[in-house]
Write a sequence for this structure.
């Protein structure tokens, strides 16, 4: 009876090991967004990330940065390729599905690809980031700008 219990435990442990190994292989190509952002922060420590959208296959992540620029992270297994994209420095076309973008990087042609997103809204937003059309107004006034009327009245 003891041998039977020991064999059952070994078989269950082997099945669990094989299941975990298969799961790890399946998730190997699916990068972690948090790890990708950490790698981007290491590569470009002065860039603040405001928003991000990953592609449907999780192999690429597009970032909206603080000053109108965009960021790009592409997964290669456990390694990431990170780039900062100046507004208007890429060519963007819509894919046939409407949920994707065909992006041409003139400075980094090896990154040219069609990227599919979860929905058309994400693709549209990323295209605005890449083209530099997404430029939200800052809540803060610049130090060299004229003071507000309330500040002038109190002087």
């Amino acid at each position: 009876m003891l041998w039977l219990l020991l064999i059952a435990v070994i078989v269950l442990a082997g099945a669990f090991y094989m299941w975990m190994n298969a799961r790890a292989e399946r998730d190997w190509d699916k990068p972690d967004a948090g790890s990708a952002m950490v790698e981007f922060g290491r590569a470009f420590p002065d860039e603040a990330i405001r928003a991000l959208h990953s592609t449907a296959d999780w192999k690429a992540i597009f970032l909206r940065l603080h000053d109108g620029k965009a960021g790009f992270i592409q997964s290669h297994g456990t390694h990431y390729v990170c780039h900062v994209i100046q507004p208007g420095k890429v060519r963007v076309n819509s894919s046939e599905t409407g949920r994707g973008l065909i992006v041409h990087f003139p400075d980094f042609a090896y990154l040219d690809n069609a990227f599919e997103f979860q929905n058309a809204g994400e693709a549209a937003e990323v295209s605005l980031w890449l083209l530099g059309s997404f430029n939200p107004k800052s809540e803060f006034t610049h130090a060299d700008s004229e003071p507000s009327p309330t500040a002038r009245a109190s002087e």
About this structure: Residues 14 and 100 are 42 Å apart (CA to CA). Residues 2-27 form the longest helix (26 residues). The two ends are 92 Å apart (CA to CA).
